[in-house]
Design a protein that fits this description.
378 residues, alpha/beta, Spore Coat Polysaccharide Biosynthesis Protein SpsA, Chain A, 2 domains, 6-stranded mixed β-sheet, 4-stranded mixed β-sheet, 12 strands
């Protein structure tokens, strides 16, 4: 197996952020690489920006949006590397992120899937703020790793963007194009069932952007996220049914199914999923319904569970609305990020500032430059 890395970046109408992601990708110290951008039905100036400023990037163009999973599959099909790295179009990474991941992957035991480090960041004016650095355990069971993805309230220490994926995996596995939410969890879980073992290493650094304000979404978008969530947990309830070695995932599956039942019970579009979710919940050992995420206060847990089992989902939603009126509002996650406090923090902030500055210094797209003949339209 060779050492060439293909960086696959799906994008939709985010030309300014994509420009920064590409500056970052081109700044990687690892040189044996290629960049594949999948333009998923963008209507902004993404294509002209790519032609003018990134002529060496491979571009796959979907004339209409097909979603992140289909875009990543198209990127894999266009890639020539021995390894695949999935880079989100609004994120950044340390200049040595890929080099460190590759070195760790080559040094790892056979059939290992190495996950590196990540941290959240935000840019407010000229200031960069950070969340804590996160990485996963150096060694743990495959079942424990599956539980991290299946438990809806688990701390996520692994992301698809901190893993260097062996190209051979995608000879048999693809991104699930029926999912546009939890699709990354699904791929990680299927990689484990294919025989790969996730191990954590304190290498690299992937910077996950926290936006100053959430992107506006419609009620339809929110509903679709909930429907994709239901598909994810139903899918894994079916898959693990025939995997007795992973029966320890039962509690995580019940919690995910219960969370979907509560959230979808209040939506007309979710009604068709309720019988399937209820049946899967019972199959995985669920006897009585319960409120999730579980309240820390035992009296609140007992009250919520009693209302749900005696009066049903409508009464629970009424109770939750009443409780919300008295609950102290938590500070937005963005406000919890901290300015650089250590030399490592300051170095991370410097890399991010350099990417931002270089992207801003690029001139406007030169629309007279010809489009690369090798760029494909799909």
């Amino acid at each position: 197996m060779g050492n060439r890395i293909s960086i696959v970046i799906p994008t939709h109408n985010r030309a300014p952020l994509l420009r920064r992601a590409l500056v970052c990708a081109q700044s990687q110290t690892l040189r044996d690489r290629e960049i594949v951008v999948v333009v998923d039905g963008s209507t902004d100036d993404t294509l002209s920006m790519l032609d003018a400023h990134f002529p060496n990037v491979k571009v796959v163009h979907h004339e209409s949006p097909k979603g992140p999973s289909a875009s990543r599959n198209a990127g894999i099909a266009a890639a020539s590397g021995d390894w695949i790295f999935f880079h989100d179009d609004d994120d950044l990474m340390h200049p040595s992120h890929l080099a460190e991941l590759l070195a760790a992957a080559l040094a790892a035991p056979p059939n290992s899937l190495v996950a590196g480090r990540s941290r959240d960041f935000a840019i407010l004016g000229d200031d960069v703020t950070f969340g804590p650095t996160i990485w996963t355990a150096a060694e743990r069971s495959d079942t424990d790793t599956l539980i991290q993805f299946l438990e809806p309230t688990a701390l996520r220490t692994i992301t698809h963007t901190t893993i260097l994926w062996p190209r051979r995996l995608f000879d048999t596995e693809k991104w699930d194009e029926t999912l546009s939410f939890y699709e990354d969890f699904d791929l990680c879980c299927r990689a484990i069932l294919s025989g790969l073992h996730v191990i954590g290493r304190e290498v690299g650094m992937y910077y996950i952007r926290v936006h100053a304000a959430p992107r506006l979404t419609s009620a339809k978008d929110d509903t679709n996220q909930l429907l994709w969530s239901a598909r994810f947990w139903l899918k894994w309830a079916r898959i693990l049914r025939d995997r007795p070695e992973h029966r320890a995932c039962a509690e995580a599956l019940r919690n995910g199914l219960m969370d979907c039942l509560i959230r979808l019970s209040n939506l007309p579009a979710g009604q068709t999923y309720l019988p399937q979710l209820a049946a899967a919940f019972r199959e995985w050992g669920g006897e009585r319904y319960y409120v999730t995420p579980r309240p820390r206060n035992p009296l609140k847990r007992a009250l919520g569970d009693t209302v749900l089992n005696v009066a049903g989902f409508p009464a629970l939603h009424l109770l939750l609305r009443v409780v919300d009126t008295f609950r102290r509002k938590e500070a937005p996650y963005l406000d919890t990020l901290q300015p650089p406090a250590s030399e490592a923090d300051r170095q991370d902030a410097l890399h991010i500032a350099n990417y931002e500055a270089e992207a801003r210094l690029q001139p406007a797209a030169d629309r007279s430059r010809p489009t690369m003949a090798s760029r494909a339209s799909r």
